[in-house]
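INFO batch 0412 | record 1 of 1 | parsing
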Amino acid sequence: MRDYILALSIARDSTFAFPKLRRMLRSWFMKRDLATLERFDDYMLSDIGLTRGDLRHLRRLPLDVDLTHEMERLREQRARGVRGR
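INFO prediction complete | emitting tokens
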């Protein structure tokens, strides 16, 4: 699934004249939307597979990083850690 999302992201970026600018704007909007998630309680965040630490980590990333991909990586990493115990 991750490979599909990555290929889709690359394909979308290649169809625009300024793919890096598009990615940076999308990240800026997503970071703004993270403020909404920060108002959720810990139970709601855990329900979607994130923690407050994840939100802080995502907000500190540079704008040229795909936050959707990074969020998925954090969720998968946590799921593997829970299953590995």
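INFO post-check: Helices lie at 2-14, 19-38, 42-47, 52-60, 67-84.
INFO record closed
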